[in-house]
Amino acid sequence: MLGKLFGRGGGTAVDPHTLAPRKGKHGVYTLRALGDPRVLALVEAADAGDWAAVKAALAPFDLGREQAVLGQLTDVDGLEEWIVRAADEDEEHQATALLISGARHVSWGWEARTSARAVDVTREQWQTFYERLRIAEEHLLQAAELRPDWITPWRHLLTSGRGMSVDDSVKQARLDAGLRRDPLNPDIHLEWVSQLQPRWGGEPGQALEFAQKAFAGAPDGHPLGCAVAMARVEQWVESDDGDCLQDPRIRAELREAAERSILHHAYERRLGWQGDYNIFAMALSLAGSSTASNVFRELDGVFTEWPWTFMSDPQKAYARFRKAF
Hints:
Oligomer: single chain
Mean pLDDT: 91
Number of strands: 2
Structural class: mainly alpha
Helix content: 55-70%
Strand content: under 5%
Distance between the termini: 36 Å
Order of helices and strands: EHHHHHHHHHHHHHHEHH
């Protein structure tokens, strides 16, 4: 079995149906391994605990920059049991093993914490959460030191730092480190949008302002528009009003963001593009924008759990909105 292979956002730069889809009700399905047989081979090797095969399968990818591919490994059950040994024994590929281990321990840590409210998390869960994040931080910082050009360690250090409640100065330093390596990196921006939410100590509207400013400086067709869409989704999550995005100004903003990013002719459908589309699909649907129909049409039933996981029945919500538009 492939553990939690299915459920991360994805797509393929060539053909989203490279891997045969496993369609469910209403033609909705979760794409396997970003829809790419090379990624599937990578995840199968990781699931088997075969480090040599993992290294071979990594040849087409750059984990230091390709977060979508790295994200597929973070959900492989049991990977944490052998990847640390690989880091200790394989000096040549130590940075890669440490990066994978660190990212996996972040995900594994959140599995222990669960998505429950902080007051409902038990002491034992907190202890496990912090222990796994402590290991994650250690390995990610080592990977970043070994490969100072990499971006993905800083993206995951933002996540672990949020869970560990590190000082604001440390969070800012990690953000700056990521942006120095790629000022328009979508994954770094999306992670910071989460960090700026009130539930993590931010102020209402702060994340949206950050996203709008960043996207304003991006060229047409850039996926950074997803930060604006995600900021609006997060606004809905934080609000007690389920119709808080039902505003003509918000609909116009999201339509313009979609048209200048994922729906623009300059947008590149790299690995993980369906994740971008799903973010906009949810934001536009919540805002009641007819532009959602264009996004759903391009997705052709491809569903990614993020960001629909904010809803009680993610895939059912996706199917409902898809049918409505």
